[in-house]
Structures are given as structure tokens and as C-alpha cells.
Amino acid sequence: MTKHDEFPRIRYDEGCLAAHALNLIGDRWALLVVRELMFAPKRFQMIRAGLPGITAGVLTGRLAQLRAAGVVAHDERLGAYSLTDAGRGLLPVLEALCRWALTIPGHDPSRFISPSALMISMGVNLMPDKAAGRTALAGFDFGTEAFETRLVDGRLATELVARPDTPFVLTGNGNAMAAAIYGTAPLSLLIAKGIIGAHGNIPAAQDFVDLFRLEARPQA
Q1: Same-domain check for residues 105 and 43
Q2: What is the SS3 assignment for 36?
Q3: pTM, rounded to two decimals
């Protein structure tokens, strides 16, 4: 049991399980640090690149807190941070927050979107009726990070890769890629305007992004 004088500190002196969780991961930036590590280990500066508003000092503190909570591990030899099993178990929490946020006005997609944030959101905003029974393999290259996303039987699985080996690859920053996935403009127009890049089977890419919609849906 966590004691009052141990790290991480007790902020909510309650027996509530939600309060216990917030004592561990409730500080500002903590869950977003977890988000940035969801697909692969990263070094300090790569984590910070996905969190442009965070200072080095705050990130150092959050990583220390998350290590103490058993959410993050640090490989001192490689200088990389990774999620533990407990940390990876927070993916449904992040997805639930995304679903809840879709029901609350005020979301501004023009603000910075990290590659990891976009990849997590795609799992939330896949339209199950359109994706059911479908299979597809997609590549996304953000320059600093690249991902392969596999759709099998209506479910997405995403992994960080060095270079996508997929029928098509879309390229751009997080915000441009979000516009391609969730916007109404066809990919051909976005490509022609230089908003995103693409190579490979573009009709297949269009068919894939048409499976996503940024909207609230009833929950089972």
C-alpha cells in the first residue's frame, strides 16, 4: 500500500479506486507522456517532441513519478523509456478519454497533434459498421516516426516501424494527416495542394481513410 511519505505522493487521501489511480497518473502531462510511449520505447528528446508545451524539467519529473508508480521503465544503458504492462494497460483509459471528449464541444483539431495521439485516435474513430469484415494494411510516415496499421476483422493494430512496407504510405505531420483521415476533402486534392504526400495505391488509401469519422457514437 502506498504510504503518505512515499513517492508518488498522496494527493487524494481517499479509499476510492479512482482517487488511487489519480494519485499515480493524475498530475498534469502524466497521461500524455504515457500516450507518447504507447507504441514503442523512446528517448527523452523524442518524448518531448510529442509534447511541445512541456519543459525539460517537468518531463523529467513526470517520468520519475511514472517510474515510481510502476507505469514507466527506464533502460539506462540505452537511455530509453518504455511502458510497463501497467502502463500499456492505460490504452483503454486514453481511448475512453478520447470518446468522452468527442461529446464535449470545444475540441480544436488545428492545435498540435502528435503522431502517437493520431494513431490512438484512429482506434477510437474507426466506424465499426464500415470496418466489419474488412482487412487492410496502411502506412503513415510522419518524418520522425512511422507506423504500420493493420485492419483485421474490424479491429486496428498499430506498430511503430522504421519504414512502412505497405500497399500505400501517407506522409505529413500530425495535423495534416488528421485532415486526411478525418476531413471531407479527397486525398487527391490534399496531395495536389501539397498538404500531404502519398505513394503506392492511392485508391486503396482513400478507401482506408473513409473508414474513419471524428464524431461521437453511442457506447454499448
Answers
A1: no
A2: helix
A3: 0.91
